[in-house]
Amino acid sequence: MERIEHRASFGGWQDVYRHRSEVLGCDMTVGVYVPPQAADGPCPVLYWLSGLTCTEQNFITKAGAQRYAAEHGIIIVAPDTSPRGDDVADAPGYDLGKGAGFYVNATQDPWAAHYRMYDYIVDELPAWVEADPAASDRRAISGHSMGGHGALTIALKNPGRYRSVSAFSPIVAPSQVPWGEKALGAYLGEDRDAWAQYDTVELVKSAKERLPLLVDQGDADEFLDTQLRPQLLQAACEAAGHPLTLRMQPGYDHSYYFIASFIGEHIAHHAAALKG
Amino acid sequence: MERIEHRASFGGWQDVYRHRSEVLGCDMTVGVYVPPQAADGPCPVLYWLSGLTCTEQNFITKAGAQRYAAEHGIIIVAPDTSPRGDDVADAPGYDLGKGAGFYVNATQDPWAAHYRMYDYIVDELPAWVEADPAASDRRAISGHSMGGHGALTIALKNPGRYRSVSAFSPIVAPSQVPWGEKALGAYLGEDRDAWAQYDTVELVKSAKERLPLLVDQGDADEFLDTQLRPQLLQAACEAAGHPLTLRMQPGYDHSYYFIASFIGEHIAHHAAALKG
């Protein structure tokens, strides 16, 4: 484990680490914001999952989340979005392979060797984080776009593991949209039953824990109708009786300007759940 | 004039324009944050000058200033840092030529043809901004590093033009440090009297207006002792009786994490001066 960035930020520290992932079979970079309150004892942890093309840098440089994390005393862990390295399989498009791990465990060649982002986010990363006495095992999870899909599916598949979950502009029905069909088809093969295990709209039907979902979506998002389709989530939650707060934000697009505008409200939401 | 970005942000709009600069003889890109209050009448304007290597993008994507601008009802105008284009002179280093205009009017070849950032920032850019009824002629100015140098020198040279001035990690004595000696030598030639016209420590001696200077400086800044040397500004202000608030911020470096941590306080400082 190596600390490769260490920058003072809002009274705490925005760090970046490189650590070995056994699950992924490669080195991974992870942004970790440590609020000033960590000096006085363990702090709860918000896991942030980024979207297509991102590394750990996008969220830590553009979201402005450190201010709110410092206000509420929350650690934010923001990992890279896929395995990396010369021996890791890749594809020409931005929406498959490196930068596009989709937070699943791949079963198909050539992806199965390294693409196990689900296990990395659910187990290995928190174990690594919580080995530090600054971090408690009170966890929340959030993310954007592909990372919003990751946050929602991971929370729904792991009852009791997260105190709260939220998402910005998430892919809610990957089995029904082009990004998801391409990625799940490649990583999981043609069996659509396997896809359903990583599809929020499917998982909501039988969720064992009715953890409320907070979702913000810009109504000027360029991917709204083709890839995101939040009305599918709304219908699934209504049918299943799953609590959902879906907020359509007028004028906002898919960019980090949108995330920055509402990340404070999301962190306040998580802080309320993480207390006590 | 062309609007090339238009993104909802904290209830207002983060725009980027491309406009023709007659002064610079090229097209320039400018970030403009328009707060929600602009719908109700003209808002005052904070001009932000960025540092070496930057374009208009660095500040608008990384500083997190929009939140505070929206809170106080302030427009923020963040221009590029030099003339641009294939016919604009450049040099191999990051600290001369494109991305390194130093906010001076060059007198030497090959720079004199386009490098007139001083006139652009003082006259042409505000005239372009204030032609829009959303912008008032109440002005404040701030910046980072080379842009902190620009903000301080421009405010000192133009009494009555700005209600307030501040800087992050500014180059305060370009005549005495390597960045400044290289750039002023190239743009202005060997006559050091010409340099003094763009040197804060020199200008403070005879400033016609004793506008208070607010300066934040990280004490872990990697350029502190070689390029920035705020103690020279402190001594000059003490000798001249010029009001200065110099805050050494423990642990902070030269990055945008530092700017983001304190931009809220700077905007509140400018907002207080811009009211009324």
Task: Please give a structural write-up.
Two copies of one chain form a homodimer. The mean pLDDT of chain A is 98. In chain A, strands 1-2-3-5-4-6-7-8-9 form a nine-stranded mixed beta sheet, with helices on both faces. Chain A is globular, with a radius of gyration of 17 Å. The first copy, chain A, is built from ten helices and nine strands. In chain A, helix 2 packs parallel to helix 10 (256-274). By secondary structure, the first copy, chain A, is α/β, with parallel strands linked by helices. The longest helix of chain A is centred in the last third of the chain and has 19 residues, at 256-274.
Short description:
Chains A, B: One of its GO terms (molecular function) is S-formylglutathione hydrolase activity. The first copy, chain A, is α/β, with parallel strands linked by helices and 276 residues long.
